[in-house]
Amino acid sequence: MSKSTDERGRIYLPKDVREKFGNQYRIVELPSHVALFPVDEDPVAGLRAAVGDAFGDTKAADLKADAREAISREVREEAEARSQAGKE
User: Fold this and answer.
1) d(CA 24, CA 47)
2) Can you name the residues that pair with 29 across neighbouring β-strands?
3) For residues 59 and 43, is the Cβ–Cβ distance under 8 A?
4) Which is more confident, 8 or 53?
5) Which of 2-6, 17-21, 55-59, 79-83 is least confident?
6) Can you list the alpha helix ranges (DSSP code H) found in 1-88?
7) What is the percent of the chain with per-residue pLDDT over 70, rounded to a whole number?
8) Residue 15's pLDDT is what?
9) In sequence order, which residues have a C-beta less than 8 Å from that of residue 45 and are 6 or more positions away?
10) Which of the 8 DSSP states describes residue 25?
């Protein structure tokens, strides 16, 4: 399927696509293209469905806290790498 953006950069998805996959999508930029991935109305339930019992009885709040810590760590590491690159 091919779609073009309008003058404001919007892409309109056909009704049958929205009915099948929903109305929320994550845009992922890859080296050679972009991809749209549907986002579940309940992302945690979607994650559990995708990975089965890999998280066992881990609560959503714990998963969120772990994700926030990982993101903070990545941001700090990236900032440090940029700082080091600027000194060279």
Assistant:
1) 15
2) 34
3) no
4) 8
5) 55-59
6) 15-21, 43-51, 60-87
7) 99
8) 94
9) none
10) E
**The residue type at 64:** K
Q: Kindly list the domain boundaries of the chain, sorted by start residue.
A: 15-86
pLDDT digits (tens, 9 = 90+) for 41-83: 777 777 777 777 777 777 878 888 999 999 999 999 998 888 8
Rounded distance, CA 52 to CA 43, Å? 14
What DSSP designation does 68 have? H
Contact 55, 63 (CB under 8 A): yes
Q: Which SS3 state, helix, strand or coil, does residue 72 take?
A: helix
Give the 3-state secondary structure of residue 38: strand
Contact call for residues 48 and 55 (beta carbons, < 8 A): yes
- For residues 86 and 52, give the distance between their C-alpha atoms in angstroms, rounded to a whole number: 44
